[in-house]
């Protein structure tokens, strides 16, 4: 209901007609790698934000915000579709692949959060684009546009960092150690555990 309101409001802002919402969103979610995972469009968590956002809420559930819905419905555009596909691949990787670490608000936690994000970017590129790094980079740049200030946070590296990590082309021990350095983590035992946890992912340039 509130998602419809957001789409309606945005259609006025960008002066576009609203096509069949249900059909368009169903088509947008037609990705075989989603498997049995349920995807919901909702204003939960990010409300009427103008930044597209998605998150893995629980195992088997991904929620996508109203802004994503509005862009998918109002812009029949390859750039939007590509970035959305990448986002879904990213969230699917979170669904199965995160390293679990319960400590909060420390540099160690920041490192683990960042590695999980970068791993999800690599997994997303694999799922969404069969490992094509260019499509992943274009998607990251599309998302970066919505942030006036691009900075590192406790939960995510900056888009600039994420782009740089993707450009490495391989998610492996070297990249994990580089992330540890950038995140300010020098807990060698933890870094080793994280390195051993993840299977390397190699992307490809076309
Ligand atoms: Zn993520």
Kindly describe this structure.
The protein is mainly alpha-helical and 206 residues long. The chain has two domains: 2-76, no CATH class; 97-202, no CATH class. Helix content is 55%, strand content 9%. The protein is built from nine helices and five strands. α5 crosses α8 (173-183) and α6 (133-144) runs antiparallel to α7. The protein is globular and about 55 Å long. The chain starts with a helix and ends with a strand. The model has no long low-confidence stretch (mean pLDDT 95). The structure holds zinc ion (ZN).
Question: Which short descriptors sum up this protein?
Answer:
206 residues; 9 helices; 9% strand; 3-stranded mixed beta sheet; mainly alpha; 2 domains; two-stranded antiparallel sheet
Topology (SSEs and partners):
Blueprint lengths: L1 H12 L7 H8 L9 E5 L11 E5 L2 E5 H9 L3 H20 L9 H23 L3 H12 L14 H9 L2 E2 L1 H11 L4 H10 L3 E2 L4
Parallel strand pairs: 1-3
Antiparallel strand pairs: 2-3, 4-5
Helix pairs in contact: 1-3, 4-5, 4-6, 5-8, 6-7, 8-9
The structure holds zinc ion.
Shape: globular
Strand order within the widest sheet? Answer: 1-3-2
The largest pleated sheet is described as: 3 strands, mixed
Q: Helix and strand succession?
A: HHEEEHHHHHEHHE
Q: Strand share of the residues?
A: 5-15%
Q: Compute the average pLDDT.
A: 95
**Number of helices in the DSSP assignment:** 9
What portion of residues is helical? Answer: 55-70%
State the secondary-structure class: mainly alpha
Radius of gyration: 17 Å
């Amino acid at each position: 209901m509130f998602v419809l309101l957001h789409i309606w409001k945005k259609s006025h802002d960008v002066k576009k007609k609203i096509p069949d919402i249900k059909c368009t969103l169903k088509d947008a979610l037609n990705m075989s790698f989603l498997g049995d995972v349920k995807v919901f469009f909702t204003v939960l968590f990010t409300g009427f934000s103008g930044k597209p956002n998605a998150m893995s809420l629980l195992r088997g559930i991904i929620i996508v915000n109203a802004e994503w819905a509005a862009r998918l419905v109002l812009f029949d555009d390859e750039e939007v579709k590509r970035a959305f596909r990448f986002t879904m691949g990213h969230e699917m990787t979170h669904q199965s692949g995160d390293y679990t670490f319960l400590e909060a608000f420390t540099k160690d936690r920041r490192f683990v959060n960042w590695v999980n994000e970068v791993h999800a970017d690599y997994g997303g590129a694999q799922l969404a684009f069969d490992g094509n790094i260019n499509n992943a980079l274009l998607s990251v740049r599309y998302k970066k546009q919505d942030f006036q200030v691009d900075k590192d946070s406790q939960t995510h590296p900056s888009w600039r960092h994420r782009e740089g990590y993707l450009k490495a082309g391989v998610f492996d021990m070297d990249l994990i150690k580089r992330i540890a350095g950038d995140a300010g983590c020098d807990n060698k035992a933890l870094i080793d555990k994280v390195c051993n946890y993840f299977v390397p992912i190699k992307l490809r340039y076309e």
